[in-house]
Amino acid sequence: MNFKEKYQIKKQYLTNNTKRRSGQLISPKVKFIVAHDTGNAKSTAQNNVSYYERTNNEAYASAHIFVDDKDIIECIPAITSEKPEKAWHVRYNVSKDNELYGFEANDVAVGVEYCYGENINAYESYKRYVWIIAYICYKYNLNPNVSIVGHHLLDPGRKFDPASGLKHSGRTYEQLLKDIVSEYEECGDKELIQKKEKIQLVDSIISNQNNFMETFLNPASKKIYAVGNDGKKHWIFNEESFTAGKNMGLWKENLYEVKSQSDNSYEEGDVLIFVKV
Ligand SMILES: [Zn+2]
User: Which residues are placed with Cβ below 5 angstroms of ligand 1, an ion?
Assistant: First the structure.
């Protein structure tokens, strides 16, 4: 993914078809990240994942990734799989996730847990926590400035994480958000980051439409394309050469339908395509 591999991610998936891991896929796609802490001082990443596995049919409560000073362990597929699954880390009956992102957190968000306590080096744990969240943003083309939210903001008055846990590292929630943006810029490929910004722009326009299209970056050609509800791949246009002419018809505001068979002739550096689906 061209993201600097500072740390290893351990894949240790929970048993599937259990209360903690349903196997349901995140849908329609990963849209944001919820920052948590475990609320359980001294419990390491491995302790937490082992506990989840031991009690895998006891509760509908889980998270994707646990981070401490030694390990980053993914127990529900999120970044180590191309098919990220749902975890149960935010209550369904809170409304803030819908207000901010238009979706339930459990359906579209990756939940990342910060581990802390006297036996855990708070700074090392924090560095891994920042890195993995930045990496998730990068992998899923999320803007790190707006795609991370603390659990305390989604479930106010009831939850205080991750600010409560981060205190152990001397960091605030606000500092965390800034450090994630810096890490994203430091570890990501500069050229790809620029492309991803375009993808985010496309996504933000598409998300205002009724028709769902998912945008992708082809790692081989670094071209951006979208796949619509019709299952077809739509290449993204060069803005400069993009004029509504005889090959294109206006669909909705900012959106054009490509009608020509020569659509695939657009080359590297192409930017935007909006296709009716
Ligand atoms: Zn939480």
Answer: 36, 151, 161
Instruction: Kindly list the domain boundaries of the chain, sorted by start residue.
Output: 10-188, 191-265
Q: How do strand 223-228 and strand 109-114 relate by DSSP bridges? A: unpaired
**Structure-block tokens of residue 43:** 């419990």
Q: 189: CA distance to ligand 1 center in Å?
A: 31
Question: Could you tell me the fold of the domain covering 10-188?
Answer: Lysozyme-like (3.40.80)
CA of residue 265 to ligand 1 center, whole Å: 48
Could you report the per-residue pLDDT of 33-77, keeping only the tens digit for each?
Answer: 999 999 999 999 999 999 999 999 999 999 999 999 999 999 999
CB atoms within 10 A of CB 81: 13
With contact defined as beta carbons under 8 Å apart, do 12 and 65 qualify?
no
Which of these, 162, 181, 157, 186, lies nearest to 172 by C-alpha position?
Answer: 162
Quick check: helix, strand or coil at residue 235?
Answer: strand
pLDDT of residue 212 exceeding 90, the answer is no
Sheet containing strand 223-228, strands side by side: 213-218, 223-228, 233-235
- Say yes or no to pLDDT of 159 above 60: yes
